[in-house]
Amino acid sequence: MTDPRLFVFGPGYSARVFADALRADGWRVAATCRSEEKKAELEAQGIEAFLFDRGRPLADAHAALAGTTHLLVSIPPDAKGDPVLDQHARDLADLRTLDWAGYLSTTGVYGDTGGEWVSEAAWLKPTGERQKRRVEAERGWLNLYRQYGVPMHLFRLAGIYGPGRSAIDSVRDGTARRVDKPGQVFCRIHVEDIARTLRASMERPTLGAVYNVADDLPSPSHEVVEYACRLLGVEPPPLIPFDQTEMSPMAASFYADCRRVKNDRIKRQLGVTLAYPDYRAGLEAQLAAGL
């Protein structure tokens, strides 16, 4: 049996938590990066590192991917498309050691449902350019499965949070705001529950499957900030009406859509039990851990 090896295109926040958990279990892990400095940093941590970016494919894809049993792609598409697909689709199609592959997408592909619940069977109606690119990238990855048998799985992630990237952190550093847009809710997922879901999929692969990865409690963002303040024992920032709030176009775009995302499939098909079924559990655990 081939020793398991995970190859990660783009070891960002979620992918890195997942990769580190596998490394702790004795897995070999390889990942891409965009600079020599980052390459040296990853290698110092025991991760094989390879330079990759749009316009700079893997120097020797056959050697870099050799022995890969599991693949995770977390690089978002750009204006030209998906850089991994564009430069290495054929290399991945030819990879005979691959048992499982995952693509980290976003629940943004569903667009605005006016707060209604959506499952994986819902029509994709992206409202923004970034979300439209995601839909095209998803199609490309699924085509790689349908045409060449690459064992793809798609994971549509809700808003990601966890230590270093939570309401507790934003309250501590003074950047937290309570924005009120009546009727607006956001779906979230703790980074450790993303890793838990990916691991469950690896243990129960269903080729071509699509999974929503979200917790059980869609909530307004201002309630999350208020709860973090309560845990920290500080006064919450003032509640500001959305139409009176100054924010970047990207930040404002998150308020353009309102939906509730069903997570039944990861529970039913993969047997996932969320460690943090709502933001309260996630924030409480972070504070209890001293993070």
From TrEMBL:
Sorted UniProt keywords: NAD
Protein name according to UniProt: NAD-dependent epimerase/dehydratase
